[in-house]
Design brief:
heterotrimer; A alpha+beta; B alpha/beta; C alpha/beta; B: nine-stranded mixed β-sheet; two-stranded antiparallel sheet; 7 helices; C: Rossmann fold; 8 helices; 26% helix; globular
Chain lengths: 382, 261, 326
C-alpha cells in the first residue's frame, strides 16, 4: 500500500516548520550568514517550538517524531536557512545514539536535559586524520579504575563550542580497527574537554563548528554508550538514520533555489520580455523542479524504511547523494538565472550555493555514498 | 473560569483566490487552509490568561464542515484543552449558513458550555463580514468589547478591562463577566503550535456535534433560514498601468500637469 | 409588512456631517432609487439634536434624533437598544449606515436583535425589491468582489464610504426634525465606558482628506515621517501609515490604512516607502490617483500606482516638497 497523503498532524508539523522558516529564519538568514554569528535568538525560539528536539520521545519531553516526520521538518527549515538547520541536525546526531544504545538512566539524564532548556549537543566522530575512514581514528580510550580516560582530537564538530554534552567515539585498541571503537557521553564541563575556536566557514555560517580536544578526560563507566567495541557500528547506524535528514536539507535548499529562480525569472526582463519566457531559463527551472520532486521521493522512502525498522543503508545513501547533488546543481543554476545579480551578496542565491556545497561533504561525502551504494548493489549481485 | 474561543477555517493568508469558471464559486482545489489569523490571536490571548492562572480551561469551537477539524487540531496544538466541532455538513449541503445562523449556533454552544469569557477574532479574513461576534453577544444579552488591543481581568475575575482600537484613537471599557471580546492584531503575537503540542493535540478531546442536535437552538428560535447567499464572484477590474518618472522634479511636474496639487 | 422606505443611521452623531455620513446618505439615496421609497435619517447621541440642522439639507424626508442620557458615552449595547426601539415601531425596508469602528461594533447587534440579515461594507447596490436585494462587496482582502443575494422584508447594510458619491448639491427643502424620547434605560449594566483617548492633530482626518501622504516601514521611523509631515503640510494632506509602522510604535493606531485600519479613497494618495502588502492595498486601492515612491523597483505597490518614482524617500521626499512649493 503506497500513500503520499500526510496525516492532519503531519500537515500541522510541516506548516509549523514552514511558518517558522519563513518568519523566523529566512528574514535574518543573510544577516547571520554575513556575520558568521551563531543564531542564538532563532534557536531559542526554535527550542520553544520543539524544533530542536523533534525526534526525542515524548516521555523525555520531545515530540517523538518518526524519521519520516523529521524529514518534513528538516526540508522546511532548510528552505529558510540551511546553516541554522545544521545546528538542529547536530542535536539530532547526538540524540540518535542515545536512542539506539543509551541506558534508561543515560536517556533520562541527557535527553531530558535537551528538552528542559535550550541545550546543544554534538556528535564527535571526525578527526583531522580520519574523516570518511572513521575506523582509523586515533582518539583513544583507556580503562582506568571503574572508568575511562579519553585522549585525542576531533575536528569539524557541529555545535562543538556550544554543546552541553558530546557523544564521542574513541578506540580502546587501535589494532582492532572498527572493532575497537567505543562511544561515550562526555558532559562539556568535564576537565580536559577543550573546544577550539569557531571555524570561519564558506557556508552554514549561522552554525557553530569547532575542533574538540580531549586531554586526559576522565569519565565513569556509566557514561559509556553501548558496549565496548560497539561504537563503530553505533556511529554507522546513527549516520544511516540521519542521512535522510541531510537529504531533506538538500531538498529544502533546492526548493529555495527553485522558488527564487521562478520569482526572479518572472520579474526580470530582457529583450522586452520576462526571462521566464526564454526556453533556456524554462529548461533550467523545469530541471530543478523535476529533481526536487525526485529527491523528495527518495528522501521520504529512505526515511519510511528506517521507520519500518528495515535496513535503509543503500536507500539513505541514494537519497543523500541525489538530494544534496540536486541542491548544489539547483543553487548553481539559480545563480546563473540571476546572472550578475546572483553573484552578489545582496541576492539570496549565492548563499544557497555556498550552503549546498557542505551538504555534499558532511555526514559522509558523496563519494562515500557512491561506495555504499555500489557495495550494496554488487553484494546483491554476487 | 472557562474561556471559549471560536475558530474559523479560512484560506491561507497568502493564497491567491480565483473565481471558478462558473463565476459562482471559488477555485479551492490547490488552496491551503489555516485558522483565521485573528482567531489565532484569540486562542493566544485565552492561553495567556490561563497561563496567568486566571482561567482553568480553554475550549475551541468551530462551526463548519468536517474538514475544519484540522483547524481545531491546530488550536489544540497551540494549547487549547478541548475542541468542539459543530458539524454543519447537512445544512451546508442545502445552502451556506449566514452570519445570523452561525451566531445562533455559537450562542447555543455558549449557553451549554457557560464560559466566563468568549474571545473571538475581530474579523475573518475570507468574507470580512465583521458580524458574528456582536451578534453572538446580543443573542446572549452579554456586554462586548470589540477590537481589543489590551485585555486585563480583575483580580477577583469578575470584570475585564479592555482597551479598544477605534477610529478616533483608544477607548477603555469595563465589562462584567460573562462577556465577549474580539481581538485586534496588536494584542499579542500568537505562538507557533509546538511540535510536542501537535503530537499531544491528537489525544485531546474533540467533540463533534451535529448542528441539528444542538438543543439550545430552540431557545434562540431555531437556526432559521439562510437569508444571505453569495451568488457570484468576480475579479477586480484590472488597473491601467501607471508611468514611472525619473526624478522628484518630474513627479512634481506630472502632479501639476494633472492638476492634482 | 414593511414600507418601501429607507432609514440611514448616524451615530454617534458628529457636530456636522462628515464625508462618511454624506456617503451614507448617498447609499440611502441609491437604495430609495431602487425601490421608489423615501429616505429618513436617524441621528443618535448627545450631539444629535444640535447637529440636526447641519443634516437638514441632504434630502431626507425626515430627521429623527435620539439624545438619551445613556447615549452620552458610546456603547454598542445602548446604541443597539436605541436603534431597535426606534425601528421596531417603523417598518423600514432598508436600514443603512457607513462602515466605521462604531457601526462595525453595534450594527451586527442591531441585526441580531431584530433578527434580520445584514450586509457589511457594501460597494454597489445591484438590485433592491420588496423582499430581495443584490449587493456587491469586497472579499479576500479586497481582491475579489462578491455579489450577495439577501432575502427577507427588512435588511441592514453598511457601505464603504469610498464607494458612494457624496450628494453634490444641497437640497433646498429643509428636512423636518423630530426629537424622539425614550423614557426607559438603554444601557446594559455589564458595560462601563471608561475613557476615550483621542489623537489630536491640525491635519485633516484620514477619512476626510482629499490628499493623503502615507508612509511604510521603509521610512525608518521618526526621521522619515518628519519629511512626510513637511510634504503633507505643503499639500494640506492627512498623514497615514501601514500596520508595520503602528506596530513599531512610530505612529498611533488611528492613522493605519488597510484591511484592519481605515479604508480610504482620496483624490491623491502618496504611498512612500510602502512595499504594498495586500492588507495595505485593501485600504487604499480605490484612491483616484496613487503615487508610489519606493527604492525597490519590484515593490508590488508599483502595480497599482498611477505615478511611480524609484528612489530613496529620504532624498526624494524633500526634493518633491521643494518642487511643489514653486
Amino acid at each position: 500500500m503506497v500513500s503520499f497523503e500526510l496525516t492532519p498532524e503531519q500537515q500541522l508539523l510541516q506548516e509549523t516548520a514552514r511558518r517558522f522558516a519563513q518568519n523566523e529564519m529566512a528574514p535574518v538568514a543573510q544577516q547571520y550568514d554575513e556575520r558568521g554569528e551563531f543564531a542564538l535568538k532563532v534557536y531559542q525560539k526554535a527550542f520553544a517550538t520543539g524544533l530542536l528536539n523533534d525526534i526525542i520521545p515524548e516521555k523525555y519531553g520531545g515530540a517523538g517524531l518518526t524519521t519520516f516526520e523529521s524529514t518534513l521538518i528538516a526540508e522546511e527549515l532548510a528552505s529558510g536557512c540551511a546553516g541554522m538547520t545544521t545546528t538542529t541536525l547536530g542535536n539530532g546526531l547526538a540524540t540518535i545514539p542515545l536512542l539506539i544504545a543509551g541506558t534508561e538512566q543515560q536517556r533520562e539524564r541527557f535527553l531530558t536535559l535537551l528538552t528542559s532548556k535550550l541545550t546543544f549537543a554534538s556528535f564527535d566522530l571526525t578527526e583531522p586524520g580520519a574523516g570518511s575512514d572513521a575506523a582509523s581514528m586515533s582518539t583513544t580510550a583507556t580503562r582506568k579504575g571503574n572508568g575511562y580516560v579519553l585522549q585525542g582530537e576531533k575536528s569539524f564538530i557541529t555545535n562543538g563550542g556550544v554543546a552541553s554534552f558530546h557523544v564521542v567515539f574513541a578506540t580502546l585498541d587501535k589494532s582492532k580497527r572498527s572493532k575497537g571503537v567505543t562511544a561515550f557521553i562526555v558532559p562539556s564541563d568535564t576537565p580536559g574537554l577543550i573546544p577550539g575556536k569557531d571555524e570561519s566557514k564558506m557556508g552554514h555560517r549561522a552554525s557553530n563548528t569547532t575542533s574538540v580536544r580531549y586531554e586526559n578526560v576522565e569519565i565513569p563507566a556509566s557514561l559509556r554508550l553501548g558496549e565496548e567495541g560497539q561504537g563503530f557500528k553505533l556511529a554507522m547506524q546513527t549516520l544511516d538514520r540521519a542521512r535522510s535528514s541531510v537529504a531533506a536539507i538538500g531538498v529544502g535548499v533546492a526548493r529555495a533555489a527553485l522558488h527564487h529562480s521562478a520569482q526572479y525569472a518572472l520579474e526580470r526582463t530582457t529583450f522586452g520580455q520576462p526571462i521566464a519566457q526564454h526556453q533556456g531559463i524554462q529548461f533550467m527551472i523545469a530541471q530543478m523542479a523535476r529533481d526536487v520532486e525526485a529527491a523528495r521521493l527518495l528522501t521520504w522512502h529512505a526515511a519510511w524504511m528506517v521507520d519500518q525498522g528495515m535496513n535503509a543503508s543503500k536507500e539513505s545513501a541514494c537519497a543523500k547523494l541525489f538530494a544534496t547533488d540536486t541542491a548544489m546543481r539547483a543553487a548553481t543554476d539559480a545563480v546563473q538565472i540571476f546572472g550578475g545579480n546572483g553573484y552578489m551578496r545582496e541576492y539570496p542565491v549565492e548563499k544557497l550555493m555556498r550552503d549546498a556545497k557542505l551538504l555534499q561533504i558532511y555526514e559522509g561525502t558523496n563519494q562515500i555514498q557512491h561506495i555504499v551504494i555500489a557495495r550494496h548493489v554488487l553484494d546483491a549481485a554476487t | 473560569m472557562k474561556i471559549l474561543v471560536t475558530i474559523k477555517r479560512t484560506p491561507h493568508r497568502d493564497a491567491r483566490m480565483r473565481v471558478a469558471a462558473d463565476g459562482k464559486s471559488l477555485e479551492t482545489g490547490d488552496i491551503a487552509f489555516e485558522i483565521n489569523p485573528f482567531d489565532e490571536i484569540a486562542v493566544e490571548e485565552a492561553l495567556r490568561i490561563k497561563e496567568a492562572g486566571k482561567a482553568q480551561e480553554v475550549v475551541a469551537v468551530t462551526v463548519g464542515l468536517e474538514v475544519a477539524r484540522e483547524q481545531l487540531l491546530a488550536a489544540l496544538a497551540m494549547g487549547a484543552d478541548r475542541g468542539i466541532l459543530v458539524n454543519s455538513g447537512g445544512a451546508a449541503e442545502k445552502q451556506e449558513l449566514d452570519s445570523l445562523q452561525i451566531a445562533k449556533t455559537l450562542s447555543a454552544v455558549i449557553q451549554s458550555e457557560q464560559p466566563g469569557l468568549v474571545i473571538m477574532g475581530k474579523l475573518a479574513t475570507d468574507d470580512e463580514n465583521w458580524q458574528i461576534a456582536p451578534m453572538v453577544a446580543e443573542l446572549l444579552g452579554w456586554p462586548q468589547a470589540t477590537f481589543a488591543s489590551k485585555l486585563e481581568l480583575s483580580e477577583d475575575g469578575k470584570t475585564a478591562q479592555v482597551t479598544r482600537e477605534v477610529d478616533a484613537g483608544l477607548e477603555e471599557v469595563e465589562l462584567t463577566l460573562p462577556a465577549l471580546v474580539t481581538v485586534d492584531l496588536r494584542i499579542n503575537e500568537p505562538r507557533y503550535a509546538s511540535l510536542p503540542g501537535i503530537m499531544k493535540a491528537k489525544r485531546k478531546p474533540l467533540d463533534v456535534i451535529e448542528i441539528e442536535d444542538l438543543g439550545g437552538l430552540a431557545d434562540l428560535g431555531g437556526i432559521g433560514q439562510s437569508c444571505v447567499r453569495t451568488v457570484s464572484y468576480r475579479a477586480l477590474p484590472a488597473k491601467e498601468k501607471g508611468i514611472l518618472v525619473d526624478s522628484a522634479a518630474a513627479l512634481a511636474a506630472a502632479l501639476k500637469e494633472r492638476k492634482l496639487v | 409588512m414593511t414600507t418601501a422606505d429607507v432609514l440611514i443611521i448616524v451615530g454617534p452623531t458628529p457636530s456636522s456631517p462628515r464625508k462618511i455620513d454624506r456617503a451614507a446618505i448617498g447609499f440611502g439615496r441609491k437604495a430609495t432609487d431602487c425601490i421608489s421609497g423615501e429616505l429618513d435619517l436617524l441621528l443618535l447621541g448627545p450631539a444629535a439634536e444640535t447637529a440636526s440642522s447641519q443634516f437638514a439639507h441632504l434630502g431626507a424626508r425626515k430627521i429623527y434624533t435620539i439624545g438619551h442620557a445613556d447615549l452620552a458615552n458610546y456603547t454598542a449595547e445602548a446604541y443597539t437598544h436605541a436603534v431597535c426601539d426606534f425601528t421596531s415601531e417603523r417598518n423600514y425596508r432598508f436600514l443603512g449606515g457607513s462602515a466605521s469602528s462604531a457601526t462595525r461594533d453595534y450594527f451586527p447587534r442591531v441585526a441580531a436583535r431584530l433578527g434580520i440579515p445584514m450586509a457589511s461594507e457594501v460597494l454597489e447596490i445591484d438590485q433592491l425589491t420588496a423582499d430581495q436585494a443584490q449587493l456587491v462587496r469586497a472579499v479576500f482582502v479586497g481582491n475579489l468582489l462578491a455579489t450577495l443575494s439577501i432575502s427577507g422584508p427588512q435588511i441592514l447594510a453598511t457601505c464603504r464610504a469610498s464607494a458612494f458619491e457624496v450628494p453634490a448639491e444641497e437640497v433646498a427643502t429643509e428636512s423636518p426634525v423630530e426629537v424622539v424620547t425614550i423614557s426607559h434605560a438603554l444601557a446594559l449594566a455589564g458595560k462601563q465606558f471608561l475613557s476615550l483617548t483621542e489623537q489630536t492633530s491640525d491635519r485633516p482626518d484620514l477619512t476626510e482628506a482629499e490628499i493623503i501622504v502615507s508612509g511604510g516601514r521603509g521610512t525608518r521611523g521618526a526621521e522619515g515621517f518628519q519629511l512626510l509631515e513637511q510634504l503633507a503640510d505643503q499639500l494640506g494632506a492627512a498623514i497615514g501609515c501601514t500596520r508595520a509602522v503602528v506596530d513599531s510604535g512610530w505612529m498611533p493606531n488611528d492613522l493605519q490604512v488597510g484591511q484592519t485600519g481605515k479604508v480610504v479613497a482620496p483624490k491623491l494618495y502618496f504611498a512612500v516607502a510602502i512595499s504594498g502588502a495586500i492588507q495595505h492595498m485593501a485600504g487604499m486601492r480605490s484612491s483616484k490617483t496613487v503615487v508610489a515612491i519606493n527604492k525597490d523597483p519590484d515593490a508590488p505597490i508599483f502595480e497599482i500606482a498611477d505615478l511611480g518614482l524609484v528612489a530613496d524617500m529620504l532624498e526624494a521626499v524633500p526634493q518633491l516638497t521643494e518642487a511643489l512649493k514653486g
